[in-house]
């Protein structure tokens, strides 16, 4: 007997394509355009899985989800939405939805999620009742790149899995770490952050684990470390790539054994913290150079999360600018808006400083100019000043320096970092991998995850592209338009 899927959406076109895809996959399908009918079917014991839009003509699916979970806790519910915000994904997770799918979506992916939901043991679908949702909006953007982030975060909220966030400077790594904590199961515990690059090497172990009185010169009293301060909550290890090797060894022991010893102490102390790490460096390259422990990398990299640079989510620029103007207004600065021309200028800019650079620009525009509407000329003037101060840009139009020159400069610094020694063997392969990853990721982002178009753009065979995606562990954004 085939499984029955209940589909609710007020858009007849979506109901049609979804039901056709599910029927081709061998499922029985019932469709409706309102919540009341959907609830009547569920209450009568019909359906093995539900797919529903959030906003329906006669109600909101989030209001019905608690009733569904109370009446039939083992019934998986997949939520669709065109809202595409971080809070939509979190609400879906906290209300007990099995998964959240932003519109537009890939039908093949939808069918795969349905199969996975129906194949899982019923016990694993149950979730604890969530606490009250927060009203703030910690992450901004509706681009396909951010939808992948929202869905990944929603899935991790009710777990204590260790997460490693990678991304360029200014992409919002600490903001994501805070969202993981504030909306996760440890939200009532402390969130403690430590920046490895900002602490002298000789003090890192003391900062992490604390020290006893007299443990070293100047230790005049017992001091608690960040692990103790974060007990029951989340410890955010920022710039983990800058952690010295001796501290890496201590951290690895904590992750393996769940306990640590303060500097100068003898008694092991059990710890209960969730670790979230972040870096703007390639940890695999650091491993190859002998600067990062491979076993620690695999302990930290349980759930890898790559934040896209602003240039890969440029469609979010207008929303981000409005958000930062609103924040500036809350701080007493005059209300401003961007002209269409100003937005066009900003969309052409490469944003080497990512979202942080955009936020700084918006604050300057709010504070320095009396005009209510910011023109293209004002934005060009401010961005030209940024280009002149930014290493790696030519200062004449904001274009990146020649790729060959950039690689040559990088290699010069790379060889210099080894002093009189040479880098480990295999340099050619490592450099090619480092160039391939951003090249293929950029091509996939530009083609919205369409691998046929990306392969044509790159001039490679599609099978070759697929192998590269798999070998380099590149996330693919898929969407139907």
From TrEMBL:
Q: Does the keyword Secreted apply?
A: no
Which keywords annotate this record?
Activator, ATP-binding, Cytoplasm, DNA-binding, Nitrogen fixation, Nucleotide-binding, Phosphoprotein, Repressor, Transcription, Transcription regulation, Two-component regulatory system
Major localization class: cytoplasm
Superkingdom of this entry's organism?
Bacteria
Q: Name one GO biological process term.
A: regulation of nitrogen utilization
The Gene Ontology terms for molecular function here are: ATP binding; phosphorelay response regulator activity; sequence-specific DNA binding
Say yes or no: keyword Metal-binding present: no
**Response regulatory domain: which residues?**
4-118
Q: Which positions fall inside the Sigma-54 factor interaction domain?
A: 139-367
- Can you name a GO cellular component term? cytoplasm
Q: Where in the cell is it found?
A: Cytoplasm
- Residues with PTM 4-aspartylphosphate: 53
Cross-referenced PANTHER family: DNA-BINDING TRANSCRIPTIONAL REGULATOR NTRC, TRANSCRIPTIONAL REGULATORY PROTEIN
Q: What does this protein do?
A: Member of the two-component regulatory system NtrB/NtrC, which controls expression of the nitrogen-regulated (ntr) genes in response to nitrogen limitation. Phosphorylated NtrC binds directly to DNA and stimulates the formation of open promoter-sigma54-RNA polymerase complexes.
> Protein name, please?
DNA-binding transcriptional regulator NtrC
């Amino acid at each position: 007997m085939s499984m029955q899927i209940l589909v609710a959406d007020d858009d007849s076109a979506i109901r049609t394509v979804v039901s056709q895809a599910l029927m081709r996959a061998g499922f029985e399908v019932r469709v409706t355009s309102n919540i009341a009918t959907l609830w009547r079917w569920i209450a009568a014991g019909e359906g093995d899985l539900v797919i529903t839009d959030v906003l329906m003509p006669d109600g909101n699916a989030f209001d019905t989800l608690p009733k569904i979970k109370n009446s039939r806790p083992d019934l998986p519910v997949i939520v669709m939405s065109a809202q595409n915000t971080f809070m939509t994904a979190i609400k879906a997770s906290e209300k007990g939805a099995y998964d959240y799918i932003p519109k537009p979506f890939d039908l093949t992916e939808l069918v795969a999620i349905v199969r996975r939901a129906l194949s899982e043991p019923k016990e694993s679908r149950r979730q604890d009742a969530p606490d009250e949702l927060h009203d703030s909006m910690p992450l901004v953007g509706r681009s396909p790149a951010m939808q992948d982030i929202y869905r990944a975060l929603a899935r991790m909220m009710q777990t204590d899995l260790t997460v490693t966030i990678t991304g360029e400077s200014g992409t919002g790594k600490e903001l994501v770490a805070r969202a993981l904590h504030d909306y996760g199961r440890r939200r009532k515990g402390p969130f403690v952050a430590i920046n490895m690059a900002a602490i002298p090497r000789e003090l890192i172990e003391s900062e992490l684990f604390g020290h006893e009185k007299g443990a070293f010169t100047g230790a005049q009293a017992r001091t608690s470390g960040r692990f103790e301060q974060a007990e029951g909550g989340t410890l955010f290890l920022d710039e983990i790539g800058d952690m010295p090797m001796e501290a890496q060894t201590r951290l690895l022991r904590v992750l393996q054994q769940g306990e640590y010893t303060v500097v100068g102490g003898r008694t092991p102390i059990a710890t209960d913290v969730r670790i979230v790490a972040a870096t703007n460096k390639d940890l695999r390259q650091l491993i190859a150079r002998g600067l990062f422990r491979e076993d620690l990398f695999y302990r930290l990299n349980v759930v890898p999360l790559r934040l896209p640079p602003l240039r890969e989510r440029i469609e979010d620029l207008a929303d981000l600018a409005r958000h930062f103007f609103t924040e500036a207004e809350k701080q007493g600065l005059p209300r401003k808006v961007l002209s269409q021309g100003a937005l066009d200028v900003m969309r052409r800019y490469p944003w080497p400083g990512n979202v942080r650079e955009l936020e700084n620009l918006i604050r300057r525009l709010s504070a320095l100019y009396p005009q209510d509407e910011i023109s293209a000329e004002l934005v060009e003037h401010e961005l030209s000043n940024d280009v002149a101060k930014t290493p790696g840009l030519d200062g004449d139009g904001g274009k990146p320096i020649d790729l060959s020159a950039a690689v040559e400069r990088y290699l010069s610094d790379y060889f210099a970092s080894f002093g009189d020694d040479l880098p480990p063997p295999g340099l050619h392969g490592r450099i090619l991998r480092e160039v391939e990853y951003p090249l293929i990721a950029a091509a996939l982002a530009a083609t919205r995850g369409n691998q046929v178009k990306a392969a044509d753009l790159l001039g490679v065979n599609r099978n070759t592209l697929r192998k590269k995606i798999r070998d380099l562990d590149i996330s693919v954004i898929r969407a139907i338009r």
